[in-house]
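Hey, I was hoping to borrow your eyes for a little while. I'm sending you its amino acid sequence along with the backbone structure tokens. Take your time with it, there's no hurry, and the full record follows here.
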Amino acid sequence: MIHVGDRQVIWQPGMTLAQVMEILEDGHLYAVVRLDGKLVSKPHFSSTLVSDEAVIQPLPLIAGG
């Protein structure tokens, strides 16, 4: 099981961060996530493997001025 924000998602061997984000309704909105404490940007989602019991925190981008 992996932890994504306040949800739990069933882990599968070889699962990538991109696959996890596809499961989420709003996963396409996130350009950066924190995976086990490390920041990962969207260009690296498809090449980043997720381990069992991983903790993923999607981080919303906030613009302002």
Strands lie at 2-4, 7-9, 32-35, 38-41, 55-59. The two ends are 39 Å apart (CA to CA).
